[in-house]
Amino acid sequence: MAKFLDVHSGYFGVTREQLAEAHARDLEIETDEGVHFERAWLDPESGKAFCLATGPTREAVVRIHERAGHPTGEVYELQIEV
Amino acid sequence: MAKFLDVHSGYFGVTREQLAEAHARDLEIETDEGVHFERAWLDPESGKAFCLATGPTREAVVRIHERAGHPTGEVYELQIEV
Lengths: 82, 82
Fold this sequence. Notes:
Chain A is α+β, with helices and mostly antiparallel strands. Chain A is about 30% helix and about 35% strand. Chain A has a 4-stranded antiparallel β-sheet, with helices on one face.
């Protein structure tokens, strides 16, 4: 199982409730691809959101985010952690 | 105390040892600014590195990374977490 961090842009002014709702949509379907989204963070001023996930492949993470309605091409495999 | 995620680019092919060494340079001086770098991740294929930190301000995180020799302007305050 690999670890991934993905980056979403353009989420200016998004609230905690909106982030929680988007994250819940991932959680609802994540097991279809063997993915788990552990955490989501947001900086509403820069509009950047980040998700930390585990899963079998980068593509699996991409597909869940697409189906949940918040696609991103910026999904990085965290091969090294210290 | 706020939480921050920063992004570094261009670290293609960096090894675990090199990341650990860079992270250690942050840890050596972080208390000067009341910052703590909790974790660092690297995707050597895309050259992206990410650090998760706590600290008083975004500028404090920027200054430690500058002094440690790996400056980045991409430091995001994680105001919202789910």
